[in-house]
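Practice problem 4.
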């Protein structure tokens, strides 16, 4: 499994995913501004991975703050938090990283500034290692729905490259493969940034998991032939009523799955669930520049000056979703809000085969 991101000696090392699969190049981000640029320009992408990058950016940014009190230190962190929060609006994971940092620092108000700085670096490392463990747990819960001989369709890249490692949507796929099940994956190419073609198919091939790349508009035809048994996708922000924001095209795939009687699962670590937002209509949706649509790598594929709309994410309403696979278990979208309630008996609402 290729390493997506690491923090070594105060430097955030990011795999530049814009160059994959043609080149495997790492970029050294020596300050938080470069981490923010890396997130905005998609050197690193995928909700959990940008949450990890934000935690690392906060840690290296904090090291440069000169402060003699806790309040001064927090003031110094403000521009770092704001710059990171402004990079990409849809994935909740950057917000998650910032809020978590604030809460953890608030619990350590009496410690020295040096010890807070050291704590933030350790915390960023913990976020990375915990993410891999969370994905393995998601993998274990999700693999039960993948049977021997099944073909799974996925959209975008919710794999190792989108996380600290192992992947969310690829978690159940990897776990089923490790259990010795003979399975196949169809990867949607995922226009316009081609995360499926460039990233998902590449990382699954690296790990010898059988994968077939298809154009996004082939999914309906293949589903209709009955050649796909289930879909598993990731999420950038899943909200309290079970609506799911994910890469543009996820909604179309979910509708096609419903029409063809194919179960549609969403792999969602708790860090990607925003219980504060009641419905998907309130999720901020990122729109990006036209070049991602008019160009593929350096090649211009559209007339010069054509008007372009490049919506990066869509919202899939809960009614199209069979189950949400979290590290706490698999739940119906309408039960998701209950998992936050300490009085809920999770076993009683968990989906099982
Ligand atoms: O624009 P991207 O590549 O950051 O979009 C990524 C996705 O939509 C993923 O499916 C999502 O972040 C989940 S990653 C585990």
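Answer key:
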């Amino acid at each position: 499994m290729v390493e997506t991101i690491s923090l070594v000696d105060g430097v955030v090392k990011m795999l530049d995913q814009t160059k994959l699969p043609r080149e495997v190049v790492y970029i050294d981000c020596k300050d938080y501004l470069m981490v923010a640029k890396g997130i905005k320009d998609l050197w690193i992408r995928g909700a959990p991975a940008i949450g990890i990058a934000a935690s690392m950016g906060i840690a290296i940014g904090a090291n440069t703050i000169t402060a003699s009190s806790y309040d001064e230190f927090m003031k110094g962190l403000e521009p770092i938090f704001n710059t990171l929060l402004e990079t990409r609006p849809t994935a909740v994971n950057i917000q998650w990283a910032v809020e978590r940092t604030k809460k953890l620092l608030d619990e350590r108000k009496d410690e020295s500034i040096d010890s807070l700085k050291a704590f933030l670096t350790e915390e960023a490392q913990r976020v990375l290692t915990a993410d891999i463990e969370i994905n393995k747990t998601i993998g274990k819960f999700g693999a039960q729905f993948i049977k021997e001989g099944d073909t799974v369709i996925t959209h975008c890249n919710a794999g190792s490259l989108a996380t600290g490692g192992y992947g969310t949507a690829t978690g159940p796929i990897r776990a089923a493969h490790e259990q010795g099940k003979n399975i196949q994956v169809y990867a949607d190419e995922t226009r316009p940034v081609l995360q499926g073609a460039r990233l998902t198919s590449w990382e699954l091939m690296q790990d010898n998991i059988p994968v077939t790349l298809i154009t996004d508009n082939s999914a309906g035809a293949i589903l209709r032939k009955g050649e796909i048994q289930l879909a598993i996708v990731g999420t950038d922000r899943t909200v309290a009523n079970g609506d799911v924001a994910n890469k543009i095209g996820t909604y179309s795939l979910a509708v096609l799955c419903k029409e063809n009687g194919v179960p549609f699962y969403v792999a969602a670590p708790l860090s990607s669930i925003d219980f504060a937002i009641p419905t998907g209509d309130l999720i901020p949706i990122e729109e990006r520049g036209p070049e991602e649509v008019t160009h593929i790598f350096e090649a211009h594929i559209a007339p010069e000056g054509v008007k372009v709309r490049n919506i990066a994410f869509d919202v899939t309403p809960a009614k199209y979703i069979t189950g949400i696979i979290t590290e706490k278990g698999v739940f119906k979208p309408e039960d998701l809000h209950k998992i936050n309630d300490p009085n809920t008996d999770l076993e009683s609402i968990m989906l099982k085969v």
